[in-house]
Design a protein that fits this description.
tt1808, chain A, alpha+beta
């Protein structure tokens, strides 16, 4: 298991500011945002979300990391209908459990905007990802904004792009084409490299020098580890039982020898 975001010494407190008038909204926060090209986006989106869920949140067990997909981020406290819906977004050092009951991500209550956002390209969203959404994320202060185009650039113009916010403007994150043919870019927020591999998203750990497993492989590894540990414990218990049994047999044999010696002694008398 790889969890690269260190636990923060201080989590931002969630500051709830009154009740939300959900009836006044022109959207239903209980319904995931439905994208018109979900079939184009979903394979890459679902795999990347599974990798992040597995390796960044430890299967959702990190209380200081909020990870979500296709839900609403509002960025105007005066009008909650002014909103954006990232494909995948992450906030670190926050009270994740306090965010979900609000049904909407409100930066002024959470204490910060999301730290990391990625948009997966499709025919109907590609232009918005590189235009309107990019401007919104810079405006609200998202530190890293990534774009991933499974087609190889048909909708975004490039296979993958990462940008880091510097003085209110996005600056490109350097990408490298590796000898293995994988396009990589390092994310300071994730502590990992995001990769484009023939349209498939991967996460690479540069410290361990390995590509991270998807959640099925990671769970299988967990189960194997548990089974190995149990086998080791059972082996130790079996060895202990065998030793105890051998010692018991030795004690019984010694007792039998003492009994026979006493019997011989009496017969001799």
């Amino acid at each position: 298991m790889t969890t690269t975001i260190a636990s923060t010494t201080k989590t931002l407190p969630y500051r709830k500011q009154g009740e939300i008038d959900y009836d006044s909204l022109d959207f239903d926060p209980n319904e995931p945002v439905r994208k018109p090209d979900a079939m184009e986006q979903n394979p890459a989106l679902m795999k990347l979300h599974a990798l992040l869920h597995t390796h960044l949140t430890d299967f959702g067990n990190r209380p200081d990391i909020f990870l979500d997909v296709n839900t609403i981020v509002c960025y105007d406290p005066a009008n909650l209908n002014i909103r954006v819906s990232p494909d995948i977004y992450i906030a670190t050092g926050v009270e994740a459990a306090a965010i979900r009951p609000r049904k909407i991500y409100l930066p002024w209550e959470v204490g910060k905007p999301p730290d990391w956002v990625i948009e997966i390209a499709s025919s109907s969203t590609g232009r918005e990802d590189t235009g309107r959404k990019r401007g919104i994320y810079a405006e609200i202060g998202v530190p890293e904004y990534w774009r991933f185009d499974p087609t190889g650039g048909e909708y975004h113009g490039v296979e993958m792009a990462g940008e880091r916010l510097v003085n209110g403007e996005y600056r490109p994150i350097e990408l490298t084409n590796e000898p293995d043919g994988v396009l990589k870019g390092y994310s300071d927020v994730l502590g990992l490299s995001l990769c484009w591999n023939d349209g498939d998203p991967l996460l690479y750990d540069p410290v361990a020098d390995l590509y991270l497993e998807d959640w099925q492989d990671a769970e299988a590894a967990r189960q194997y580890e548990r089974a190995a540990r149990q086998a080791a414990e059972e082996g130790w218990q079996n060895e202990f039982a065998a030793r105890l049994q051998a010692e018991t047999r030795a004690e019984d044999a010694e007792a039998e020898v003492r009994r026979l010696r006493e019997l011989l002694r009496r017969q001799g008398q």
